[in-house]
Amino acid sequence: MSTADLMENLREELTCFICLDYFTSPVTTECGHSFCLVCLLRSWEEHSAPLSCPECWRTLEMPHFQPNERLGRLAGIGRQLRSQVLQSDGEQVGYRRMLAATKVFSADKGSVNSFSTQSHGIDRAYHLNDAEEQNRKKLQEVLNILRKKKKEAQVILTHEKERVILCKEETKNCKQVVVSEYVKMYEFLREEEQLQLQLLEREERENVRKLRDNELQLTQQIRSLSRMIEQIEGRCQNPSTQASEDVRGTLERSEPLLLQCPEAVTTELSLCHVTGMREMLRKFSTDITLDPSTANAYLVLSEDLKSVRHGGIRQQLPDNPERFDQSATVLGAQIFTCGRHYWEVEVGAKTEWEVGICRDSVSRKGNLPKPPGDLFSLIGLKIGEDYSLWVSSPLKGQHVRDPVHRVGVFLDYESGHIAFYNVTEESLIYCFPPTSFEGALRPIFSPCLPNEGTNTGPLTICS
């Protein structure tokens, strides 16, 4: 094989597919093909996405390539070798024919071949000047691209600086809006607070008036009874001296007193409605489930451990230490030693129920009253048409106009705060005095006894 043929083979290996010239600052793409850096960037700039390899047209995920310094050095060696071959008289004619053929080939491809010549008399200096000119053009193209990138970066930088100012201004405006809205909310809540206090004061005056009137009435009744008792006792001491007419008169005068029944006055207070109560409390919502290992053998739990009812039949369950053996009670699976927690329980139309919070160490055996501090619960009780709510412990109750259908339970461990809410009316039912908790606390539930079929409904923990 002649030197010209070897040079042609070497040139093909060291030539960029795009410019058909020796590589300048070559880079290699993901698919393994190499190109001049400027040629590749210009090719990608001229063609819209998706980006692809100019040689195999493989789609590239991103414009990623690696510099190929070794290929660049080989291209430089190829240029030097070409110059030396041009100096050889024996091979110069054949090589010139190769250059002419390369020019024809480049014209067919529509590309500019830096190695093609317009005359067979071109000398070595011309080729060197042409290569330098090509290098200058490529460097100028890179410089133009870099300047364009710099200009774009400067525009974005200026825009980002402006955005910093706008961001601060927008945040300042938002803060002002938030403060303004909360000022209005505070004012609204203060008005609501005053209305609630005024309502309670009016009801207090009315309840006190009722109690005072009943107190006066009972005092008068007691005086009348005392006088009548004295008269009858006196006559009983000397029955022989009394005429039947006197006895008959005494009995007639005592008859109205016998028909009188001393009664206590029923007092009522409006529900303490708290605006926005539920929205505030639900920020502390905690997912509560029931603990089967603590459930009394008569209780039936739902599969999702969200509901409990009295089944009426004792189940064959192990009498483990955690299980309540006498009280129709089950504990929640969650244990609290810190934080704020809130959950809601649907009591429906039950005539008796109990929900609340207890110490994890609460006694599970027997049905004795729980010591103070072991149990904080709310009990609903309906007798006839009267409905009352009781809290323990110590046990105390209050009469309410309407039954409660859904109860909210709130615990703030650190502040020692436990409260119960009427979810439907968005009102406070009862708040225990602040307590210093020690140890773990758990939710507690009791659907209570069926009461001959009048109280068979379940207690359901709301999602």
Structure description:
Helices cover 42% and strands 18% of the residues. The chain is built from 7 helices and 17 strands. α1 packs antiparallel against α3 (69-86), α1 runs parallel beside α4 (89-109) and α5 (124-237) runs antiparallel to α6 (244-259). The model is unreliable at 89-95 and 97-124 (pLDDT under 50).
Low-confidence stretches: 89-95, 97-124
Q: Got a strand count?
A: 17
Helices, by number, come to 7
Side by side, the strands of the main sheet go 4-15-14-13-8-17-6-5
Helix content: 40-55%
Radius of gyration: 49 Å
N/C terminus separation: 87 Å
Q: What's the shape?
A: elongated
Question: Biggest β-sheet, characterized?
Answer: 8 strands, antiparallel
Which strand-content bin applies to the residues? 15-25%
User: What string, H for helix and E for strand, traces the elements in order?
Assistant: HEEHEHHHHEHEEEEEEEEEEEEE
The secondary-structure class comes to alpha+beta
Mean of pLDDT: 81
Top keywords for this entry?
18% strand; 8-stranded antiparallel β-sheet; alpha+beta; 6-stranded antiparallel β-sheet; elongated; 463 residues
List the helices and strands and how they pair.
Elements: H1 3-13, E1 26-29, E2 34-36, H2 37-46, E3 65-67, H3 69-86, H4 89-109, H5 124-237, H6 244-259, E4 272-273, H7 277-281, E5 299-301, E6 307-310, E7 330-331, E8 340-346, E9 352-359, E10 375-383, E11 386-392, E12 396-400, E13 406-412, E14 417-422, E15 427-431, E16 441-446, E17 459-461
Antiparallel strand pairs: 1-2, 1-3, 4-15, 5-6, 6-17, 7-16, 8-13, 8-17, 9-10, 9-16, 10-11, 11-12, 13-14, 14-15
